[in-house]
Amino acid sequence: MGFNFATFAPIGLLIASNMFMTFAWYWHLKYHGMVLWAVVLISWGVAFFEYWLAIPANRIGSAVYSAAELKTIQEVISLSVFALFAVFYLGEKLTWNHAIGFGFIGLGALFIFKGPLK
Q1: Side-chain-facing half-sphere of 27: CA atoms under 13 Å
Q2: pTM for this model (two decimals)
Q3: Distance (Å, whole) CA 14 – CA 51
Q4: What angle do CA 94, 96, 102 make, to 5 degrees?
């Protein structure tokens, strides 16, 4: 696999899309006083922009990556973005349990990209 637009663009687009989606799904946890219908509409509006990034990311990335690889990239990015969001926006603390869990996910990603076991 060479390094070109189709290799890097999906990663950048997926990072941006996951930032929108993480915010859409979790921003409201700091605002329990808001009515649910308003939270849903605001989140839906934010998620609209996520689709404008995720769909092109997968379309462009399919020239280089398999569907399983694209999904794996998305999940690793999603958890990374969420971890940063949880710490810096929600004020939560990450623990060793989180680090170990993320490590196992990274190990799973390695198996996806390594190819079939022989």
Answers
A1: 17
A2: 0.86
A3: 10
A4: 80
